[in-house]
Amino acid sequence: MDQSALKERILTLVPKAEYQENKQFLTFVIPPDQLHELALHLRNDADFAFDYLFCLSGVDRVNVLEVVYHLESTIHKHQLVLKVRTSDRENGAFETVCDIWRTAELHEREVFDLFGIRFNNHPDLRRFFLDENWVGHPLRKDYKDEINIIEL
Amino acid sequence: MNDVLNPQFIPIGEEEYHVNIGPQHPSTHGVLRLVVSLQGETVKSLKPHCGYIHRGIEKMCEKDTYPQIIHLTDRMDYLSAHINNHAVCLLVENALEVEVPERVKYIRTIIDELTRIASHQLWWCSFGMDMGGQTCYFYGLRDREKVLDIFEESFGSRLLHSYYTPGGLMMDIHPNFQKRVKEFIKYFRKKIRDYDDILTGNVIMHERTKGIGIISKEDVISYGVTGPTGRGSGFSCDVRKHHPYAAYDKVEFNEILETAGDTFARYMVRMGEFRESMKIIEQLIDNIPEGDYSAKMKAVIKLPAGEYYQRVEAARGELGVYVISDGNKTPYRMKFRSPNLSNLSALDHMCRGYKIADLIAIGGSLDYVIPDIDR
After folding, report:
1. Best CA proximity match to B270, nearest among B219, B230, B224
2. Scanning A2, A18, B70, B243, which has the fewest C-beta atoms within 10 Å of its C-beta?
């Protein structure tokens, strides 16, 4: 499917999806409550067949916390980027996608560890790189570490 | 240690017990800890524990300029340092729409493939040693030394090169470069037959690898396993073929695919890649165009506000660099999609039901580099 057809199909599936201008990938911001349903459809529908999640990243945009999913179809070779956002910095949570793409299990643990974003129904949500007793989430913009981070 | 004893995470049955492999264990090839749940000698499940060398490279990148970031990428997957550099350079060049000279593209492609050969040589020798063949280790390192000597002559370092810069190369290649690369290819074409004689045809090796650690193509895609490990299961994932960069669209080479999905298939993919890499180098080495070794770049590199993604084929799989820029000289957020982390996520699936000695063979065939997982 080419980008314009893909864009139309996504917008009919999720009318609330917000299209974002990007030169490289077709990008949408999705309402968090529709994420899991849409992700499952995107993988299972033969026209989409997004079977390969090649990147999962967390982003701290100061007013919102964001998770970005880079998807590719190994059959049709088309790509898509989905984003979900939450303004809740304390208890922000999204539905996990690790039952859809198994690779998400470790990547979601990494995002939880470094950004403090929770993933509901994740089988084993623990810190990944840092110690269990670590305070704070280092990749957040408001993270303070006076010993290790030298401000110039 | 708490989580090992906590039954919430790992169920402790009557006859099940847990063994910590690592963080200090030769077969984990670095500081990785695997908590293996065993029943007798059979692996029931496995949990990787990461972070022993987490340096916060992504956080550091937010304070560094793009030329500085190049030096950090060396320290991720140090065995394919050039290819990591290449990813960041390509990202900056594409974002600024800079056209790099043809000479740079050719040299980068040759050096990327030399890096891949050197990396696979180290994999081959340590894989042989994991299987109990000490000889392999000396043969592999002996030949890797030849590649490192070429690197050292041309740009002064053997492991952490930082040779690529946004727009081109740090300096031009040494006058001896072409001659020595050709000598090396001639030498290695002979020596790779020794590799086959020692290990590929070895009956003990066949017994330990054939039918061990099988993973299907569907699972490989779902786990995001790429590189030789993914191609061993028939997942066509070579970035050089699907999203060509540098001079890869000008050369003839095959993507090595195997369908068995076992440890032996992954071994055979890498053995094939040795020959494909040499084929690529042979096509380019005599045709390096004359010209500048770098495009003209501004002294301070600022990416226009926006999001950029660049993928390259590192020695272990697909490396992705994701940058969100707000128009400053430092990135707002930089994410490295490391091939090893995704490959590691499939280790649990691959090892279940096999013996603990097979775990060493499967781990060897994944060829993980821990600094790339931890970043």
Report:
1. B230
2. A2
* A73 token code pair: 């179809």
ipTM of predicted assembly, 2 dp = 0.89
Which residues of chain B lie closer than 8 angstroms to A128, CB-CB?
50-51
Contacts of B3 in chain A (CB under 8 A): 126, 132
Q: Which residues of B touch A23 (CB under 8 A)?
A: 306
Can you read off the two tokens belonging to residue B216? 């299907």
What domains can you pick out in chain A, each with its CATH number?
3-88 (3.30.460.80)
**Beta-carbon separation of B320 and A54 below 8 A:** yes
pLDDT mean over A63-78: 90
pLDDT band at B22 (very low <50, low <70, confident <90, very high): confident
- Decide if B3 and A55 are in contact by the 8 Å CB cutoff: no
Beta bridge partners of B11: none
Q: Residue B2's closest chain A neighbor by CA?
A: A132
pLDDT at residue A27 is higher than 70: yes
Q: In chain B, which residues have their Cβ closer than 8 Å to the Cβ of A53?
A: 224
The set of residues, in sequence order, having a beta carbon less than 8 Å from that of B274 and lying 6+ positions away, is B117, B120, B188, B192, B195
C-beta of residue B203 within 8 angstroms of C-beta of residue B214: no
Structure-block tokens of residue B86: 């290449």
Segment B292-335, tens digit of pLDDT = 888 888 888 888 888 999 999 999 889 999 999 988 889 999 99
| Average pLDDT, integer, range A69-93 | 88
What's the CA gap between A96 and A113, in Å, rounded?
A: 15
Per-residue pLDDT of B192-222, as tens digits, reads 888 888 888 888 888 888 888 899 998 999 9
Mean pLDDT over B65-83 rounds to 89
Residue from the list A25, A59, A130 with its beta carbon closest to the beta carbon of B333: A59
Domains along the sequence of chain B with CATH: 2-49 (no CATH), 57-374 (1.10.645.10)
